[in-house]
Amino acid sequence: MKLVIAFLVLFSLLAVSSAAEKFDFFYLVQQWPGSFCDTRQGCCFPDDTKPAAAFGIHGLWPNYAKCRGRGRQGLARAMLGDAFLSTVGRRGKC
């Protein structure tokens, strides 16, 4: 079992390293559960003395230094597609 886990970790590291060449940098995004409470009725602070331990890793997001010349609208069109964006424009406002 340990060998399988080691293989999966090694394989995932190799996959990330090959994909890392295509991006300029990565955001390490962390989330503090207390910030969710802040949207409701106050804020929930961690009970322990180490608040950093209460943070969870939300993800490692790849990014480019620039949008590769497409601009903001071009990026949205590339990610969502023209058909989806045209239906969004027809809907009412919230």
Task: Explain the overall architecture.
- The protein has 94 residues and is an alpha+beta fold.
- It has 2 domains: 19-63, no CATH class; 67-94, no CATH class.
- The protein is 47% helix and 16% strand.
- It contains 4 helices and 2 strands, in the order αβαβαα.
- The chain has helices spanning 2-20, 33-38, 71-80, 82-90, and strands at residues 25-31, 56-63.
- Strands 1-2 form a two-stranded antiparallel sheet.
- The N and C termini lie far apart (51 Å).
- Keywords: Signal.
- InterPro entries: RNase_T2-like, RNase_T2-like_sf, RNase_T2_His_AS_1.
- One of its GO terms (biological process) is RNA catabolic process.
- One of its GO terms (cellular component) is extracellular region.
Total number of helical segments? Answer: 4
Give me the secondary-structure category. alpha+beta
**Roughly how much helix do the residues carry, as a percent range?**
40-55%
Please identify the oligomeric state.
single chain
What fraction of the residues are assigned to beta strands by DSSP? 15-25%
> Taking strands numbered 1, 2, ... along the chain, how are they ordered across the largest sheet?
1-2
Principal-axes geometry comes out as: extended
Q: What is the average per-residue confidence, as pLDDT, rounded to a whole number? A: 65
Radius of gyration: 20 Å
Distance between the termini: 51 Å
Q: Which stretches of 5+ consecutive residues score pLDDT under 50? A: none
Tally the beta strands: 2
Taking the sheet with the most strands, its summary is: 2 strands, antiparallel
* Total separate domains: 2
Order of helices and strands: HEHEHH
